Amino acid sequence: MRMRSIKNLGLAAGMASLLAVGAPAIAAEPPPVSVGLIAPMSGIYARPGQVMRMGAEMAVKDINDQGGIKALGGAKLKLVVVDSGDSTEKAKSAAQRMVADFPDLVAGTGAYLSSFTLAVTEVTERAKLPMLTLSYSDQITARGFKYIFQTSATAGRQADLALPMILDLAEKASGKRPKTVAILTDNTAASLSSVKAMKDGLLEKNKLELVVDETFTPPLSDASSLIQRVRSRRPDLVFFLPTVISDAKLILEKMNETNVRVPVISFGIAIAEPDVLNTVSPKLINGVMSAVANWGAKGQEALIKRMKDEYNEPWMTQNAISTYGDMWIIKAALEKAGKADRESVAQAMRTLDEGKTPYFPGGELKFDEAGHRVGATLTVIQWQNGVPVTVFPEDVAIAEPIWPGQK
Fold first, then answer.
1. pLDDT band at 23 (very low <50, low <70, confident <90, very high)
2. Coiled-coil regions in this chain (predicted)?
3. Which candidate, 334, 329, 339, places its Cα nearest to that of 376?
4. N or C: which end of the chain has fewer CB within 10 A?
């Protein structure tokens, strides 16, 4: 009986050996590649951060569904989300935790506000972690850092780009080029910074005469005197820079009440966030424009629809589309590097030359020595029928611009 058992064991072992030799080898799945998103997920800036997360999640899914990183054997991306909190101090601490807790991160994106990005990148630079950002501050890429890459035009560059774009749009839409402008701005730092750039030579450079110059302290209690000045001077354009939505509502209401039909141009996305409609009616804000660093545009209709279907977001802001695009930049760098380590990915980003990018306005998927995306420009959006849509440049416009006084 014992001999039979030994023979059976030997037979089984032999068969197993034959099966092992004859069976094709099954390749092990490559380990995932960790990429980071550091942005506010709590506090007063949570909503923009959450929208950035939506964009990142969509991109990671698309990249993985399309075969992952082919240069790494089809390795999948793994998204690591870190809450920066709602202050500079919290953002810096979050960055320190991120590089300590996730040493396998090969690249990241973030951190929404420029002040947060400046703090975060002090940490990520020391860790040699390549970071992409949509933040605008000129300081971000003026510190000689080697691991920061700015996809948006810088704040200084945006001011220089915005005026000629708006004037070109005005001429296209109305048939004449504006010559006079009004500025209505609150006295917050961001607003005054944009106004300073205009007054320090941009208006003169673009042959614009400033006929109304009004600065107010938010929140406004009465906009009558401001709008009376606009009505009496009849400028061709109004540059409108509020940071409090109630002020925007008050001024737009007063313009409507007094029949002041002047094109209104803002800067940045504050006037185009979905929660604006909680305060300002679609009819009142219809036609208002804003120059922004990025926005859902032509060619991205499927992504915009997915934002609605999967996340119940009414449109795709710059926070979502830029973060979506950042994940594709990281993929391109990984494909070029052929390695999942920080230094290789950073070097690949520095030498990327992928031609025109579909996820950012203007220019190429290429960075200069300072980390600026080459040729980065702006998008002009306009409220139309309750939705802020891209109207300029023409090659990415979803809708034709409308102009006050036109049918």
1. very low
2. none
3. 329
4. C
Q: Which of 195, 261, 186 is nearest to 231 (CA)?
A: 261
Q: Would you state the structure tokens that stand for residue 282, as one six-digit string?
A: 């679609």
Using CA atoms, how far apart are residues 65 and 106, in angstroms rounded to an integer? 20
pLDDT tens-digit series, residues 294-331: 999 999 999 999 999 999 999 999 999 999 999 999 99
**CATH number of the domain within which 228 lies:** 3.40.50.2300
Residues 286 and 308 in one domain: no
Rounded CA-CA distance 1/14 in Å is 20
- 59 and 126 fall within a common domain: yes
Distance separating alpha carbons of residues 21 and 301, to the nearest angstrom: 52
- Residue 14: alpha-carbon gap to chain centroid: 62
User: What pLDDT, in 10s, does the model give residues 74-120?
Assistant: 999 999 999 999 999 999 999 999 999 999 999 999 999 888 999 99
| Distance in angstroms (rounded) separating the CA atoms of residues 35 and 323 | 12
Domain count, the chain: 2
Supply the mean pLDDT for the chain. 90
The answer to whether residues 65 and 143 belong to one domain is yes
User: Is there a single domain that holds both residue 341 and residue 363?
Assistant: yes
Whether residues 183 and 232 fall in one domain: yes
* Rounded CA separation 79/61 (Å): 10
CA-to-CA separations, 243 to 104, 162, 222, 272, in angstroms, rounded? 39, 19, 16, 11
What pTM was estimated for this model as a whole? 0.85
What one-letter code names the amino acid at 69?
Answer: I
Q: Are residues 96 and 188 in the same domain?
A: no
Q: Residues 141, 173: one domain?
A: no
Say how many Å lie between the first and final Cα of the chain, rounded: 101
CA dihedral 334, 338, 340, 344 (to 10 degrees): -80
113: containing domain: 33-153+298-376
CA distance 116 to 114: 5
Angle between helices 114-126 and 88-101 (to 10 degrees): 30
Does residue 51 contact residue 318 with C-beta atoms inside 8 Å? Answer: no
